[in-house]
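2024-03-11 09:14:02 INFO queue: dequeued item DUF3253 domain-containing protein, len=106
2024-03-11 09:14:02 INFO validating residues
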Amino acid sequence: MSDPIEAAIFEKLAKADPKNVGGKSIEPADVAKELQPEQWQRMLPKVKATALGLMRQGKLTITKKGKVVDPNNFRGVIRLRLPTEAETAAALAALPPVESSDDDFD
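2024-03-11 09:14:37 INFO prediction written
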């Protein structure tokens, strides 16, 4: 994991839910404060954007008031948590199909 924001998100989640039982969530602001304590407000949009990308990959779930948000349409205060197996499967099913090329480079 080369992205420091991504790493910080998963580190915070590991601390919040050390047994990986699920259901424990964190605030994006906590991640931003850990990365840049003095200017965390500037980091917050980057943390949210990274979380959104991770949600679309099925690696993270974004919730609002305990309910999973639509990744294409949400606003306001959110929380981050690890996804259930069903949420991961749904996110991966929503990804566009990978185009395969018939060209062989022999």
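2024-03-11 09:14:37 INFO annotate: Strands lie at 25-26, 61-64, 67-68, 79-81.
2024-03-11 09:14:38 INFO item closed
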